[in-house]
Amino acid sequence: MMAKPAWVNVQPDVAARFAATRRRTLALCEPLTAEDMMVQSCPEASPAKWHLAHTAWFFESFVLREFLPGYRLFNADFPWLFNSYYESFSAFPEKRLRASFSRPAREEVLRYREHVDEGVERLLEGDPDAEAMKRIELGVNHEEQHQELLLTDILHAFFTNPLRPVYREQGNEGMRERENKGTREHEKDAAWAGPVVSFQEYEGGLREIGHAGEGFCFDNELPRHRVWLEPFALADRLVTCGEYAEFMADGGYRRPELWLSAGCAAVESNGWRAPLYWTEAGGDWSIFTLRGALPLKELEETPVSQVSFYEADAYARWAGRRLPTEFEWEAAAEGQPVEGNLLDSGWLRPVSTVLLPNQRPTQWGDCWEWTASAYLGYPGFRPLTGSLGEYNGKFMSGQMVLRGGSCVTPNAHIRASYRNFFAPETRWQFSGIRLAR
Fold first, then answer.
1. For the purposes of burial, counting CB atoms within 10 Å of the CB of 102, is it exposed (0-12), middle (13-18) or buried (19 or more)?
2. Residue 295: which H helix or E strand, with range?
3. What are phi and psi of 290, to 5 degrees?
């Protein structure tokens, strides 16, 4: 008898992850009003309602229309209305117009999701071929990316709201933090000295980089290839808010010798003098989070976040260090279990390692870590065929690579070979700094 293809064995896992991912997206929207879900507060962001619709669009466009016989579109306008940037698929509205989509209403978007869910479930109950299963798994990972973007965008939307609404109130983890903070305040001197940072040494040499194994990966993680690394060392933790405040106090934003030329221009044109979401009043700084505004003095030991590549690079130069390359980062992370302050932890913001007493030093979570590497295709890179080839490859110009996941990245989504990428001036993401030498 002919052996079943390997994907048959993972079909139940894909179905379960599909269902769980779809439920989580809805759960992330529960604290939001219909008005909240319409806001698009910066060019990089999208309204939450658009994220709900676009993630359904992805399954409809690349799975159901091609692989479910007799599938009927929910709405004939949705294939172009909720297209993001796939030019070979259809026309699409300008991104800046997404906040004007008062129609379809939220209730219709939710019915759209239900319609698509029913279609995918029917497909999975049958005997889908290998390509359909690959597309569903890609769609799940695509939706997990949008879960992170949804939270990132809501944080920016609430920060720009004069009332500074709170996405989710502090829970038990906030109580634990206050208890731990009280202990730390009792133990430390009046002058903040900062937590100790140590560096892990690595030998370097010829290393293999890129995705290995049979699990899912994006096309930009392939092909696996060899790179030569000189001996290097990585800090065992991220740069903290307290350390970054010292950089600010030392005139870091006013010292051109620390900055790349484009970074200097970004500081001047944007008026940067602190990370995004830092606000000063009466000489005291506070930081706005999904848990509300918190005083800097309570967050000195937490990783600094919402900094651009230019700020990360300038800080590293000020500290007498540098940013790691993405290959150094991956070589150090490969083989490590994925554990840390990711979305599943429920913190929804970077936290101090003191608050994770059973957590060993890790390269995962809290903030995406800027690397010194430009986002380019690996030797022999080939994008997916058809419109899906626009997923990653078309952005391989003018972007920098980030690694490691953030406090709003789903745990199951991240791995050592995962490559995130943004323009170097980007600050609205949960992006931070790990030093190298």
1. exposed
2. strand 292-295
3. -65, -15
The values of phi and psi at residue 385, to 5°, are -80, 155
Which CA distances in Å does 347 have to 252, 289, 328, 360? 30, 10, 28, 17
Residue at 121 is within a domain: yes
Question: What's the rounded mean pLDDT across residues 344-363?
Answer: 81
Could you tell me the residue range of the domain that residue 70 belongs to? Answer: 7-160
Asked whether the beta carbons of 348 and 409 are under 8 A apart, the reply is no
Q: Which helix (H) or strand (E) holds 25?
A: helix 7-29
Return the residue matching tokens 């903070």: 181
Encoding tokens for residue 25?
């997206």
Count how many residues are written for the chain: 437
One domain, residues 155 and 11: yes
Its sign, for the CA torsion 17, 21, 23, 27, is: positive
The contacts found for 125-128 with CB under 8 angstroms, 24 or more apart, are: 128/11, 128/67
pLDDT, tens digit, 9 for 90 and up, residues 373-418: 999 999 999 999 999 999 999 999 999 999 999 999 999 999 999 9
Helix, strand, or coil (residue 308): coil
Burial (Cβ within 10 Å: 0-12, 13-18, ≥19) of residue 249 = exposed
Tell me the average pLDDT of the chain.
91
Q: Choose one of 137, 160, 183: the last residue of a domain.
A: 160
Whether 274 and 416 share a structural domain:
yes
Using CA atoms, how far apart are residues 41 and 45, in angstroms rounded to an integer? 7
Whether residue 189 has pLDDT greater than 60: no
For tokens 């989070």, what's the residue? 289
Q: Is the pTM of this model over 0.85?
A: yes
Q: What is the pLDDT of residues 115-128, one digit of tens each?
A: 999 999 999 999 89
Cα maximum dimension of the chain: 77
Choosing from 117, 137, 160, the residue where a domain stops is 160
